[in-house]
Known about the structure:
isomerase, binds 2-phosphoglyceric acid, Rossmann fold, six-stranded mixed β-sheet, alpha/beta, globular
Amino acid sequence: MYKLVLLRHGESVWNLENRFTGWTNVELTEQGRTEARRAGQQLREAGFAFDIAYTSVLKRANHTLWLALAELDREWIQVEHSWRLNERHYGALQGLNKAETAAEYGEAQVIAWRRSYDVPPPPLADGDERLAIGDARYADLAPGEFPRAECLKDTVERFLPYWHDTIAPTIRAGKSTLIVAHGNSLRALVKYLDDLSDEAIVDLNIPTGIPLVYELDAELKPTAHYYLGDEAAIAEAIAGVAKQGRAA
Ligand SMILES: O=C(O)[C@@H](CO)OP(=O)(O)O
């Protein structure tokens, strides 16, 4: 049996401001840093001693990982970064307030943009300053491959090759593995691991900064999964994420 831990970054500045974030490289808030440290403490108390960590190229996930590893006295382990673990690209919604967008376009449209499997948000236009083409983080992404907007299906398709080629073999080799990523890149992984339908994934929300443990069999099929921490607080945090798309 293997254990894999998934951790969404702590609260970011744009989580706090309730803005669509995607590939925008925003900082953690003080609360987000506290969540990251607490996640590290919970993992330490639960006895985790990671050999390797995977994360995105976005600082809210990277800083969460550093803070959690510091609590675990594990800053020295191998850390691999990939844009394939980035948040889903939110296209032209990036920067907009979610509640204001719901007031303007309707809550049903915002639910479709936020949670449906195959409805992409409106794409970024050529020349939009929010397109990070040319950023050194994305040197291995050809301009033609650079996402302008992604639905969750697109995120699954760009993430799964990294899972199959890099992360899964590491877990099978017996390395204790931590993935620190984003709400929707982790939803992509959970959809795959739990074989959730395109309908079931709509209702899945992942809270910031709470470790999610997966127990996997020899074929890396989940036998159990659970969050670490207080059940009522976790339920409240999950409901809070779902509510972000309501009109104010
Ligand atoms: O804005 C985003 O990039 C994501 C995560 O914060 O938001 P949502 O939960 O609306 O998909």
